[in-house]
Specification:
Elements (H helix, E strand, L loop, with lengths): L1 H8 L10 H10 L5 H13 L5 H6 L2 H7 L6 H19 L3 H5 L3 H9 L6 H11 L9 H9 L14 H12 L7 H18 L28
The chain binds iron/sulfur cluster.
Iron/sulfur cluster binds next to helix 10.
């Protein structure tokens, strides 16, 4: 799937940000929000000089709420961003390099302990901001995995879980032991977002989808190539 999508769409060059800290802000702000709205918030932060660690440290909370209002849930997201910077200052001397030096499993646990950070946000920060070889999953990958019958939900559950999706990605890419896995996970997540937006929405549009041919290899899939 990675190779088919890469042939169809080319390298995605993610994450769309100028600095690792901007990636982190974007990872928080994009929760439950379209990226266009995140871009408006990031532009507000840039104009206010708050798109850096020091800028975010100094911006008062009420002003931060106003600046990130376009991306929604600002009453929750603003204090969550402040909590990230407070953790960085308190435990890592305000340095993203120090943060990135923590081994992936421990760092993931630390990020998940922060307010407003779930598995997808933690993994996006690990991979795209800090360069750790950690896969990221989302609703698009969940749809693709379900529709192509790559996974079934665990008994008694309606949906494939986040951890099952990342475990599937880890197993699939483990077959390429000599590869740069951070680069592969980076590209794969970006490509699944691309195909998800173009074809695999709430209702699948399989015609002309780069993954349509793969449905032929999915016995039991409710979909078929038209
Ligand atoms: S072929 Fe259909 S089910 Fe598969 S990714 Fe494309 S739109 Fe989704």
């Amino acid at each position: 799937m990675h190779d088919s999508l890469l042939r169809a769409y080319g390298p995605q060059r993610w994450w769309p940000a100028r600095t690792p800290f901007e990636v982190i802000l974007g990872a928080y702000l994009t929760q439950n929000t379209a990226w266009k709205a995140v871009e408006r918030s990031l532009a507000n932060l840039r104009d206010a000089g708050a798109l850096t660690i020091d800028g975010l440290r100094r911006v008062p909370l009420p002003k931060l709420r106003r600046l990130i209002q376009p991306s929604g849930f600002y009453m929750r997201k603003a204090p969550a961003l402040k909590a990230f910077v407070a953790m960085l200052d308190r435990e890592f001397d305000g340095s993203l390099d120090n943060l990135a030096a923590v081994p992936s499993p421990a760092l993931r646990r630390r990020l998940l302990d922060l307010p407003g950070v779930g598995p997808e946000t933690a993994d996006a920060i690990l991979l795209y901001a800090l360069g750790h070889p950690v896969p990221v999953a989302d609703e698009y990958l969940r749809r693709i995995a379900a529709r192509h019958r790559l996974l079934d939900p665990a008994p008694g559950r309606a949906k494939i879980s986040y951890n099952e999706l990342t475990a599937l990605t880890l197993r699939a890419f483990a077959r390429d032991p000599g590869q740069d896995h951070a680069r592969l996970y980076n590209e794969f997540h970006a490509l699944t977002v691309a195909v998800g937006k173009a074809h695999c929405g709430t209702a699948p549009r399989c015609r002309n989808c780069p993954l349509a041919a793969d449905l032929n290899h999915c016995p039991g899939s409710p979909l078929s190539v038209i």
